[in-house]
Write a structure and sequence with these properties.
865 residues, 25 strands, 47% helix, five-stranded antiparallel beta sheet, alpha/beta, five-stranded mixed beta sheet, 24 helices
């Protein structure tokens, strides 16, 4: 039940109620209003809302004994108060009561300043002193009948607890939501709610009664923060930016700055904090309404709902900050009205945020759908690219396989020296083309993180010899010299990825030959640690400026555009080399100076097989005028276990008789010398190592062997008859002759080359261009092994292999394919193939693959054909 301000209880008569002015330290005594001077009587407005000490007098009489409660109307924001109850007749002090937000005296009534008065019949005067830094509204003392008071405060207290619960729950919810989603609007909204939670908790005595917190300025400072957060929240919620509404953005930013300055002023003058709050609430209410209306007119969907929430808040909020009293009910305060206004807005704004989140989720769903479609399109494009690369690889590797296979078969026949050199040029050029194809395919794989490395033992000398063979005829030998320097401690066989190593060195050497017009290019290998090898590619070319070094490792980039115009090239080589080195556990670095040349170097983890160093029984003599070449050749021979017996200059060789106790003579010069050739023509084993071969070189009988520098370990093994130092494989020829292999390839040239290689290995083989014919023959003859091309018309290699496996053919099926992607290799294995041979293949690769699967128990038990 709420008591009307005009209603008086039957046994109470209010004589008078007025404000008066007294000194703060005045000792209260019974007053007679008509004896007060005009200076002592306060104006009708009563309390100044800013700050100060205020005195109030109530004259009241009762006809019978009664229980009353004295409390305040309009507001409970009072720092301290005291009530003096006097008997007007005798002037005796009957009771003295105190309290307030700052007071440590317990409140008899929950969330209220009410104090009980038990009075006998008579006339009484109640003098009240209020002391506060500021007031939210005018707290006017009032006497209530106790039973009715207890009933009437229930509504206000229930509203306080309900709305505080709403503030607390929503504040925590939006803080957690904003933190987890990273949305500024949620966090700012949580801050706005939290500010109002602290304000109402302090002003309506929740903190003082429940938590024993008596900080009076909690009734003002949280609102300073809440006002600032609200402006920022509106700007984020309504998407107010310079490009959406420049003037709203500027006003909002200005208000935030103004509120921050107001907070600073409040720290200096705390008693002004409530006045700053009033101004701030008015400003943000006006700004919120203006912003909402403007954004509605601009077509913002969220603004329509926000405008409703703002209007629901603005009317009661402006009343609560503008009025000093609340004439509706005695026990409901302006704080309740403000809390009600904020609560309504908080609930409505929560619905607005939910609506906005719904819009965001719809947009995200649409975006996700678009992303899925784009991803599908990207996957389709990727698949198309992979198919395109696979087809390009297949179309290029297939003829290359025929070229390289034919050249390799011809190279094993006896033929004139000139013809042999032409074949070497064809082989080197086709190898270079293979490296170029691999570069393009591998770049795509590296960008997609799909490049796999192989860890297996390989012959380092053979790998380097293959590289040197590629580049022997690719540079001007009259101007440039190519050298290979391998430290004596470097093992012959190491473990790693041989193809990737060759690819790295090929790119570095290509780069060196391209930019070196005169001078020298050197490939050197050393072993700084038993588990590592260091490679250097050094040239005396144009060099690289320091500020351009990083750019040379970017795709399609060269140090200078003029270089690309003059020297050409794809600009891919160094980037591919750097990425491969990183994948293999190293780092490619370069030291370079313009006009002086460059030194590219990298170190890779490569373990070498333990080797016993031994001196081989071969007597070698060297004729050389170049000290550097003499040192390199001496180092290469010692790495083979061969010590030089004689070291002569060309002059010494011509002036003295040729010693007979030498098995081999190595003659080193820029080009062959006819007189020296005549001098050593009678020796059965004399070998020229030259930088170039003149076209008019006269032939001698018997002819002297010629090799172009650089001379690798493989070349020295062949020249000096040390092939026997390689591991003997006495069982392989017998095992190969016992096998029957079927080859299936729709390309007749490749099939012919493959059958020629199998014949050269001593294998009994049959070939078929049609997959259907090959399938029927395999099922009938049951060969020991099948070499199967993947891409064939009508029935491809995968389908053919699946059919063989379904028809219980269990012998090895080896894919013979130009498709090099990991997916293609996996498809081969999933189809039932045992292994994969990638075109173009070498005779040794084919031999190793056959021997690998011929050693399986299933084949050995068959006994071959």
């Amino acid at each position: 039940m709420l008591i009307s301000p005009t209603q008086a209880h039957a046994d109470r008569v209010d004589i008078d109620s007025y404000w008066m002015q007294q000194a703060p330290d005045w000792s209260p005594a019974v007053q007679n209003r008509f004896q007060q001077s005009q200076q002592q009587l306060a104006s009708k407005t009563g309390v100044s809302l800013k700050s100060g000490h205020h005195w109030h007098v109530i004259d009241v009489s009762f006809n019978e004994a009664t229980d009353q409660v004295i409390d305040f109307r309009n507001s409970s924001v009072i720092a301290n108060f005291e009530h003096w109850v006097f008997d007007r007749t005798s002037g005796e002090l009957v009771n003295r009561l105190e309290g307030g937000i700052r007071s440590r005296v317990d409140n008899p009534y929950f969330l209220r300043h009410g104090r009980d008065l038990s009075l006998e019949p008579g006339e009484y005067q109640i003098i009240t002193r209020m002391d506060s830094p500021f007031y939210l509204a005018q707290p006017k003392p009032e006497v209530f009948e106790q039973a009715e008071y207890r009933q009437s405060i229930k509504v206000g207290n229930a509203l306080t607890l309900i709305f505080q619960g709403i503030f607390l729950a929503l504040g925590i919810y939006y803080f957690v939501l904003g933190t987890s989603r990273g949305r500024a609007a949620d966090l700012l909204y949580a801050l706005f709610i939290t500010g109002n939670f602290f304000f109402t908790g302090a002003s309506l005595l929740v903190f003082s009664d429940l938590l024993n917190i008596h900080q009076f300025y909690l009734t003002s400072f949280p609102i300073l923060i809440s006002n600032t957060a609200y402006i920022a929240f509106v700007m984020v919620l309504l998407d107010i930016k310079p490009n959406t509404s420049q003037w709203l953005y500027r006003i909002g930013s200005g208000l935030i700055i103004l509120f921050v300055l107001g907070f600073v002023v409040a720290l200096i003058r705390p008693n002004l904090s409530m006045e700053i709050d009033r101004i701030g609430v008015g400003l943000f209410a006006i700004y919120g309404f203006t912003a909402g209306l403007t954004r509605v007119l601009q077509g913002n969907k969220t603004a329509r709902y926000y405008l409703i929430a703002n209007a629901s808040f603005a009317i009661p909020a402006l009343i609560s900050i503008g009025a000093s009293s609340l004439p509706v009910a005695d026990t409901l305060f302006l704080e309740h009205l403000g809390m009600f206004a904020v609560s309504i807005e908080v609930i409505l704004l929560s619905l607005v945020i939910s609506y906005q989140v719904g819009l965001v989720y719809k947009e995200k769903e649409a975006g996700l759908l678009a992303t899925e479609e784009a991803l599908q399109a990207a996957n389709d494009a990727l698949n198309t690219k992979e198919r395109f690369l696979a087809n390009v690889s297949h179309e290029l590797r297939t003829p290359l396989n025929a070229i390289q296979g034919s050249v390799e078969l011809m190279g094993q026949q006896q033929m004139p020296l000139e013809t042999s050199r032409h074949l070497e040029a064809i082989h080197a050029s086709s190898n270079f083309l293979v490296f170029l194809i691999n570069d393009i395919l591998d770049l795509a794989k590296m960008n997609a993180d799909q490049l796999d490395l192989v860890e297996e033992p390989f012959d380092l000398d053979e790998a380097l010899d293959e590289l040197c063979t590629i580049y022997k005829d690719t540079f001007d030998r009259q101007q440039v010299r190519f050298l290979v320097d391998i430290d004596t401690q470097v093992p012959h066989r190491v473990t790693g990825d041989a193809n990737r190593l060759k690819q790295i060195l090929a790119n570095l050497l290509s780069n060196a030959f391209k930019f070196t017009e005169q001078g020298s290019i050197e490939l050197s290998v050393s072993q700084p640690d038993p588990n590592y090898l260091t490679f250097h590619v050094t040239d005396t070319g144009i060099g690289i400026a320091q500020n351009k070094i990083e750019s040379v490792f970017s795709a399609f980039t060269q140090a200078d555009a003029t270089i690309a115009r003059k020297y050409g090239g794809t600009g891919l080589g160094l980037q591919i080399a750097a990425k491969l080195v990183n994948l293999m556990g190293g780092k490619l670095t370069v030291f370079s100076q313009p006009e002086l040349g460059s030194d590219f170097q990298f170190t890779l983890p490569m373990c070498g097989d333990p080797e016993k160093k031994a001196t081989l029984p071969v007597r070698v003599g060297l004729v050389c005028d170049d000290a550097d070449l003499e040192k390199l050749i001496d180092k290469s021979l010692r790495r083979l276990g061969i010590e030089l017996h004689y070291k002569l200059t060309l002059t010494e060789a011509m002036a003295n008789p040729v010693p007979d106790e030498v098995d081999h003579w190595i003659l080193v010069a820029a080009e062959p010398n006819a007189d020296v050739s005549d001098r050593f023509s009678g020796h059965p084993k004399a070998h020229w190592l030259v930088n170039r071969v003149p076209t008019d070189l006269p032939l001698r009988a018997p002819p002297v062997s010629l090799e172009l520098l650089p001379c690798t370990q493989v070349t020295f093994r062949r020249l000096l008859g040390q092939a026997a130092t390689a591991p003997a494989q006495p069982e392989y020829p017998l095992m190969l002759r016992r096998l029957y292999i079927v080859a299936i390839d729709d390309n007749p040239v490749n099939l012919k080359v493959l059958l020629g290689m199998l014949t050269r290995l001593g294998v009994n083989a049959s070939g078929f261009e049609s997959a259907e014919e090959g399938l029927n023959h395999v099922l009938y003859r049951q060969p020991d092994m099948v070499l199967m091309d993947m891409q064939m018309p009508v029935m491809d290699g995968l389908e053919t292999t699946r059919t063989l496996r379904q028809r219980q053919f269990n012998n090895p099926v080896i894919a013979f394919t130009a498709n090099t992607s990991q997916r293609d290799i996996e498809n081969c294995l999933e189809a039932g193939m045992n292994d994969v041979l990638l075109k173009p293949i070498k005779l040794t690769q084919l031999e190793n693959m056959i021997l690998k699967w011929a050693e399986q128990p299933a084949l050995n038990s068959r006994g071959g054909r």
